Amino acid sequence: MKILIKILLSALIPLHFISCDNIFSPKLDNSTPVEILTDQTTIEGLFQNFKYSYTFKDTTVYGNLLTENFLFIYRDYTSGFDVSWDRATDMRTTNGLFQNSQKLEVVWNNIIYQGGDSLNQNVKRSFNLTITFNPSDIVRLNGFVDMNLVRNPDNGIWKIQKWRDESF
User: Fold this and answer.
1) How far apart are CA 62 and CA 108, in angstroms?
2) What fold is seen in the domain 43-165?
3) Which of 12, 124, 159, 164 supports an S-S bond with 112, CB 3.0-4.6 Å?
């Protein structure tokens, strides 16, 4: 009888563990899928894709945010002049940031101003950017973007035509 109990227990105990859910690996809830990359047919979708491109350091997604005649402008407070560059320079600069950082986190805050029409919008928005180069070198930036966005009338996709960075 004792041997029979041992055999039954040795057979039932593994079945018990197989049938249990692993608390360290909970099941995913796929009932409501959440898209982290959008088709950019809304302005908020453009900003969501921007955040995605920085989070995952994806230059392809980032490049799809910019028009071919894109212009980036920032203020060089040391010289007292505005500095600007084109799309190609911005792509190289952003790729360098992506390659040389361990982690990037962008938080888009409230839109301060938005105006324009169905094809052109000017959006001013605050943001927080955390750049982790390594655990002992973390840079936190808080600022504003002033972006001119254009919408392609054929496919409805919004892109950034001009970005003025108003960070300090």
Assistant:
1) 16
2) Nuclear Transport Factor 2; Chain: A, (3.10.450)
3) 124
